[in-house]
Amino acid sequence: MGKLISIEDAVALISDGARIMFGGFMGCGNAHKIIDALSKSGKSGFTMIGNDAAMPGGPLGEEYYGVAKLVHNRQIKRLIASHVGLNPEVARQMSEGSLDLDLIPQGSLVEMIRAGGAGLGGVLTPTGVGTVVQNKSEYVELVQEIGGKSYLLMKPLRADFAIISGHQADVNGNIWYKGTTRNFNMVMATAADVVIAEADHIVEIGGIEPENVMTSGVFVDYIVDGGRM
Amino acid sequence: MDKDMIKGYIAARVAKELKDGDVVNLGIGLPTMVPDYLPADVHVILQSENGIIGVGVTGAAGSEPLYVVDAGGRPSAVAPGGCFIDSSVSFSLIRGGHVDATVLGALEVDEHGNIANWIVPGKMVPGMGGAMDLVVGAKKVIVAMEHTQKGAPKILKQCRLPLTAVGVVTLIITEMAVIEVAEQGLILTEINPDFTVEEVRAVTEASLIVSAGLKTMES
User: Fold this and answer.
1) Is A103 on the interface with B (CB under 8 A)?
2) Considering the entire predicted model, what is its pTM?
3) Are A67 and A90 in contact (CB under 8 A)?
């Protein structure tokens, strides 16, 4: 079965209330075409897992950049992220009580996602010991002492969907990322039941040298042509 | 000194802590001024936690704002010889002790090397981002900040704000002094010649141990 589907078909896969990982960092490396279509779909109640909530004002003059569109359209009911300071809409919706936010240190967040995709029961990190992070029982199992040093056992994170973005994808879903866009995209490709990848360019098999494949197509269920020139 | 002079003075002193070839992560604000004060023969490798080792000059030919940004989401660039990494490798670098120094501001630091710099009281909580990982993982944690908040001490016996991490600060550099965090407490190792030890103590809540080899701060 071919993995290449239309943007409309990709959005149709996603139901209200889904738990979705969005690769990207302040909008850079977000799957812009899928997110744009999802923002116009009227679907809502999502739990969004991602580094941040992006920001208003994109580099191409977008009013809201990347996942900021979904926040602005009030489609997110819960956000699991490390930093939301560049998107004032998050604070506004939190104070209204319409958005819940769970903050997790960036390095812990990416490892929790990696653990979720790698079949690990969690990950031990010294980050957050002695801070409010260790009280987040939904994400932190307990404080462990190993070799006289304290660690937090962070639980794995998984999602129903991962919506990721690469520069080139071949028709099998092998992905090559450009610049800093690989950020959370690479780990998220491993940690969701359904992985949808948008690529600026769709290429034939062999169009990406095997040595340069950063995410193997075995992790990717669907590919969408982002059609960026 | 006015605000800008104070920042420049602190940044110039921080620059002396960095060695050629060091891998360095800089926080927002004052820390980003530090590279301007490095001697010509000291080249550091700047790391950006969203995925650059070897941050380059923004705006140089070939910059691509859609594909290359820094940790603040602004357009950025990679330097010749640098590389891009994903977030997992980036934080392996950070937590794994491969970053020689991180330079960052603080709201409070204390005698135990605790630091609080991610929640400003009464303001929206932006999130810790990579700060908690950076201060736990970097070999040297340099706090670069003004000595007081409009006269109120920021170097305390015990932090009162929510902590970023426990016992991680290596060095505190302000416009008044250089202070090392040691087992026995805070050691005043250098002092700006415009101030006396008593004047520094008057605006420092923490106890200061004056180093036997107390030097004049040069920036």
Assistant:
1) yes
2) 0.96
3) no
